[in-house]
Amino acid sequence: MDLAQALLEGNRRALAQALTLVETGGPQARALLGALFVHTGRAHIIGVTGAPGAVNSTLVAALATHWRRTDRTVGIIAVDPTSPFTRGAILGDRIRMQALSGDPGVFIRSMASRGRLGGIARATGDAVALLDAAGFDLVLVETVGAGQGEVEIAAAAHTTIVIEIPGAGDDIQAIKAGILEIADLLVVNKADRDGAERTVHQLRTMLSLADLPSDGWTPPVLTAVATRGEGIEAIAMAAEQHLRYLRESGRFAGREQERAGRELRLILQETALERVRAHVSSSDWDALIAQIVARTLDPYAAADHLLERALTRSGG
Amino acid sequence: MDRPIRVLIAKPGLDGHDRGAKVIARALRDAGMEVIYTGIQQTPQMIVEAALQEDVDVIGLSILSGAHMTLLPHVMELLRDHGMHDVLVVAGGIISDDDARILKEQHGIAEVYGPGASTHEIVRFIQERCKTRT
Fold first, then answer.
1. HEC string of A127-183?
2. ipTM confidence score
């Protein structure tokens, strides 16, 4: 069976198997993604990130439910951390997405970060491409519970939603670089708790102090109680408005350019490494490493040497 | 290809006690597996749909309510309907030896574990069975 064809025809098992393939990586995965590439570029890709405990999966599920009511199909990728010690992972985001079960217009995939920092997995971008090719109108990516550095999602999505909770951090936290700067939308979830207004106020102050790019989009600060579905419609509308803004201002092309550039860089890194490894036996590899450890060879020279070797042997 | 074993852990039926399921999930994670935990009160349809979307190698079903002779065969039937013959299914809970034998021989459940089973034993079984499959 042709996996690409089956995926395009809406076969959900084929989509699931294709996702496993791109997570594993390798030449077969690249061939599949290559074949499907022409079918991508239609979905609105939305990243949802925030501190662990901001209960982002509940909010993602509520957003998906909202968009299903307007008859739009939704693919979800939920990333959870891999243990650095055992390579194992507990992926628990589906627990809060039960209400979406049985809906053929929704596809949820849990993904372990597999050692990648930055809040998403190496293959998250590829997984988004598969859901996009499979025809989902929206693709929501929920990142690993994020602190201040998990900003990679912004490069992989059109619209980035950053979720805060009341009382988390003070004014100094709010002006720290990193996660707040990537927000296209800021949401204070659990807004029924004490301190919600203060947090909203702090975020607005932070934005007014920030040197925002002069292209006219000021991230709105919204409130929600995701467990009760409150504030969800406003978030969905703001996300749609952001996409319209990107298109009308011409910034969409810029984001696509950034996204494509990032993709190309990642693919090059991966394929270059694979090619290099294919041209060196594991005993040669170990010998080089031993030389580096003994300080008789520096790692930069070793890398140059390996690259040269791979390039000359592949005849071009 | 070297990829982690993916396991879905689910609790079919109405009992709300999931400590055992969580202990197993943790043990499988510590053995290097990716464990999708879906929580309590799952219908057979929900379990099979999640297994399909997550493309898991293994489904672990924890059931204490006594309804295993209806719910577990139903899960197996739905798996067959979806062509998912290659998914390894194991069950744990309060299940009599007679029921366990029927579930294994007639319904294709690979193994049934009682309250005394060690997590090491379960991990080893899954690793062995998945080795021959990939």
1. HHHHHHHCCCCEEEEECCCCCCCCCCHHHHCCEEEEEECCCCCCHHHHHCCCHHHHC
2. 0.92
A20 vs B6: CA distance, rounded Å: 10
Q: How many CB pairs under 8 A join A and B?
A: 82
Residue A127 in contact with residue A19, Cβ under 8 Å? yes
Query: Taking CB atoms and an 8 Å cutoff, what residues of chain B touch A274?
Result: none
Question: Is there a contact between A88 and B30 if contact means CB atoms under 8 Å apart?
Answer: yes
The answer, yes or no, to whether residue A316 has pLDDT greater than 50, is no
pLDDT per residue over A193-204, tens digit each? 888 888 888 888
Does residue B134 surpass a pLDDT of 70?
Answer: no
- A:26-65 residues touching chain B, CB 8 A cutoff: 26
Q: What number of residues does chain B have? A: 134
A11 CB within 8 Å of a chain B CB: no
d(CA A34, CA B127): 33
Chain B touched by A6 (CB under 8 Å): no
Q: Which two tokens stand for residue A201?
A: 């106020």
pLDDT tops 60 at residue A183: yes
Q: Does the beta-carbon distance from B53 to A107 stay under 8 Å?
A: yes
Q: What per-residue confidence (pLDDT) applies to B1?
A: 46
Query: For residue A256, which phi and psi values (nearest 5 degrees)?
Result: -60, -40
Q: How confident is the model at residue B60 (pLDDT cuts 50, 70, 90)?
A: very high
Interface probe, candidates B8, B28, B38, chain A, greatest A C-beta count within 10 A: B38
Q: How far apart are the first and last CA of chain A?
A: 35
Which of A16, A90, A98 faces B35 most closely, judged by CB atoms?
A90
* CB B76 within 8 Å of CB B102: no
Is A17 in a helix, a strand, or coil? helix
Cβ contact A132:A74 at 8 Å: no
Find out whether A48 and A161 touch, Cβ atoms under 8 Å.
yes
pTM: 0.90
CA gap A166, A163 in Å, rounded: 10
> What are the backbone angles phi and psi of residue B80, rounded to the nearest 5°?
-65, -40
Answer with the residue of higher pLDDT: A154 or A111: A111
Residue A86 touches partner B, C-beta closer than 8 Å: yes
Tokens for A174?
A: 């709010």
